[in-house]
Amino acid sequence: MVLDFTNRVAIVTGAGGGLGRQHALALARRGAKVIVNDLGGAVDGSGGSVSAAQAVVHEIVEAGGEALANGASVTDFAAVQAMVQQGIDAWGRVDILVNNAGILRDKSFAKMEMDDFRRVVEVHLMGAAHCCKAVWPHMQAQKYGRILMTTSSTGLYGNFGQTNYGAAKLAQVGMMQTLAIEGAKYGIHVNALAPTAATRMTEDLLPAEVLAQLQPASVVPAMLVLTHESAPTRTILCAGAGSFEAANITLTQGIYLGTGPEVPEELADRLAQVCERDGEQVPQSGSTQGQLEVGKAMAAHR
């Protein structure tokens, strides 16, 4: 199967360089019309210029594609709404949203200023929420949409010095889970990508020989799969250096202990059993937890 995006309209945020640029170029090569969004700021979010986005648009147009530049900050909901309207005005629809924009303000939590925590959450989490909210009514009306969240191994598994980034990235997974449920009847599929790639945001964090293996282009296939019309929904793909994995948030079978006064100590004694992963499941909604717990309680009292 060829992953064809002919006549699809895509918005890629943070697409002036690095991974976002590769996403925009790949979608355009496969026929999509692309809004290339980039604030053009520094890695920490300061500054701004539309020149980076315009350069990517030039690349796309030179190769025979269609693209428009946009310099909106994803933290500005009015500007994001105008960006989506730009796509509607130009091409009549928006089919794909790739939430890629992000910043880093790394420090250990003890040394981190709360302004740096808040700013990272505003860009990654609220930025994604603004973009999703702006495209949502259009996708509902056309009964079709593909939304991709950019999560991270830091959000999924943690990383020293990145409490702000990790919190925002895992929050995007939570947003994906619910938006996928709410979007199902409208043909809106929502997925997440956890990339490992050498970009401006990682160049000072990893050795040169490691960075050489982590070309942003190697992540792009996962983006294409998760935004194509054949895409799954509620899938977290990890990608880097040509490898692909799936991540899941699971629920163990656990044990029933009741509600008596001895339960705290018994839970402490049997915690390893609670955490035993045999028979764990990937819940299809948050209600699964309650159903499992009530089911065990009812079985214990039969």
Explained architecture:
The chain has helices at residues 18-29, 51-62, 77-91, 114-142, 153-157, 163-183, 208-211, 220-227, 263-269, 271-274, 287-300; strands spanning 9-12, 33-37, 67-70, 96-99, 145-150, 188-195, 236-240, 243-247. The chain has an 8-stranded mixed β-sheet with strand order 3-2-1-4-5-6-7-8, with helices on both faces. It is globular. Helix content is 43%, strand content 14%.
Topology diagram in text:
Blueprint: E1 9-12, H1 18-29, E2 33-37, H2 51-62, E3 67-70, H3 77-91, E4 96-99, H4 114-142, E5 145-150, H5 153-157, H6 163-183, E6 188-195, H7 208-211, H8 220-227, E7 236-240, E8 243-247, H9 263-269, H10 271-274, H11 287-300
Parallel strand pairs: 1-2, 1-4, 2-3, 4-5, 5-6, 6-7
Antiparallel strand pairs: 7-8
Helix pairs in contact: 1-2, 3-4, 4-6
What attributes does this structure have?
single chain, 302 residues, alpha/beta, eight-stranded mixed sheet, 11 helices, 43% helix, globular
Could you write a compact summary of the structure shown?
By secondary structure, the chain is an alpha/beta fold. The chain is built from 11 helices and 8 strands.
